[in-house]
Amino acid sequence: MVEQTGALGYFGDARRAAVGTELIERVTATGSLVIRKLGETRAGELAIHRFLSAPSVTCKEMLGTLAGRTVTATAGRRIVVAQDTTEINFAGREANRRGLGPAGDGVSAGFFIHPLVAIDSETEAVLGLLDSHIWTRDDAIETAPRRKRAIEDKESIRWLRGAERAAELLTDAASVVVVGDRENDIYSCFARRPPGVDLIVRAAQDRALVEDASLFASAAAWPELTQMLVKVAPRRVGDPGRIATVALRAGPVTLKRPRNGFAKTEPETVSMTLVEAREINPPANEEPLHWRLLTTIEVGDAAAACEIVRLYRLRWRIEEIFRALKSDGMRLEETQVHEAGRLFKLAVVGLAAACRTIQLVDARNGSPRPASDVIDPVLLPVAEAIGATLEGKTDRQKNRHPLHSLAWLAWIVARLGGWNCYYKPPGPKTMRAGWAQFATMTAGFTIATALGAESNVRIP
Description:
Elements: H1 2-5, H2 14-30, H3 35-39, H4 42-53, H5 59-74, E1 78-83, E2 86-89, E3 110-120, E4 126-135, H6 157-169, E5 175-180, H7 187-191, E6 197-202, H8 215-218, E7 226-232, E8 242-256, E9 269-279, E10 290-295, H9 302-313, H10 316-325, H11 340-362, H12 380-388, H13 406-416, H14 428-451
Parallel strand pairs: 1-5, 5-6
Antiparallel strand pairs: 1-3, 2-3, 3-4, 6-10, 7-8, 8-9, 9-10
Helix pairs in contact: 2-11, 2-14, 5-11, 10-11, 11-13, 13-14
C-alpha cells in the first residue's frame, strides 16, 4: 500500500521509503531540483545524495509506485494519455558529468525524457504519471542508414512502446486515447496500435493515399463542417496565449505503407480519419494555427470533429509539466548531480512533483477529483484538523469544497501559503509555499506511518 511504501517506493527499507517521501515533499515545496536548496544543511544534502546513489533506489520502482496511484484515479474514466519527449541539455554545465552521451545538438552532454501523462478527458485534469522512458545517447555512430533500420532499432520505438504501456496499465479505464505531436507520425505506430487504444497524432508527413492522392491535399476538397474557438497555448513565459478561430474539415483516409522503415508483417494500408483545423484570419505577425490530425476514431459530424481537436489540445498539459521541470520551474539543468543514473532518478522525482503542483493549481477553483490523487489517504484526517484552523467566520473564509476532494485540499494548501480568500486565485508560488507548510506539519505523521511508529504530528 502507498502508506507503507512511501510516495516514491519502498526500496527495500522503510527508512529509505521515508526519505523518498520527504524528498518529493521538498521538491514540491521549493519548486527546485538543486540539491543544496533541497537539503538545506550539509547533512540534508548528503542524505539526498545517499538516497539517489543507493542501488536499491531505481527509476523502475519509483515509476511503478507513481503509476499505481495514477491508475487508481483513472478507473471508469475516459483517459487521454499525452506522450512527448523533452531534452535536458547541460551545455555550459558539462564539467564532471559522467555517463551522459550527446544531447540533441550532437555536442553537449545531455539526456532525454519521454513520459506518459494521464489526463481526465471530462475535467481536463492531470491525473498523474503513468510511465517514463529516460535515456542518453550512445556516442557510437550507427552504420546503417536510418531509413534502412527497423523501428525497434530506432529511438522512435518509444512512441509505440508508450501506446502499448498505456494499454497495459489502463485496463479499468472506460476508454483510452493516446495523443502525440508530429514526431509520433510513424506508420508502424498506426499499424501496430494495441487493442483498446485510440490514437490522435498530428501529421508531419504528406503521406501517399491509396486513392493516388496526398494526405495534405485531400482535405481541400472536403466541405467545411464547422468553426470553433481554440486556445493557443503560450509559447514563452509571460505570453498569455490567444484564442484562434479555426475551420474544421474531416474525412476518412487510407494510408499507404511507406517505402522504407517498415516491417514485412505490417499491413500495406491503414485506414484512419483526418481532421484538419485551419485558422481563419490570424493576427498579424502570428503563425496561423494549422493542425492535420490523424485519428483512429470515426468522425461523422461537426461535433465529433470538434471533440478530436479538443482532445488533441489536451496534449499541452505535458508541455506544462516540461516547463515546470526545466528552466521555467525546477531547473533540472542546474542541478549539481553529475552521474547519469542519479540524474535519471532525480528527473523522475521532478516529474512527479511537477504533476502534483499542476494538480493543486488546477484544483484551486474546484475539482471533483479526490484528494488522494495527491496525498496518501492516511493524511486526510490530519488535513481535516489543519483545515479547521484556517477557516474564518464569513462564508468566503470557509472551505466550501466537498470534504476530501482535491479542491478541498487545494484550498487548505493555498491558505497555508498566505492566500486571503478575497482577491485573485492563488498562483503556483502561493501553492508551493502552502505545500511547504503542509508537508512540514504532516512530516511526523508520514514518517511515523512508514516506520510503524507513533505519530508526532502537531496541529497548530
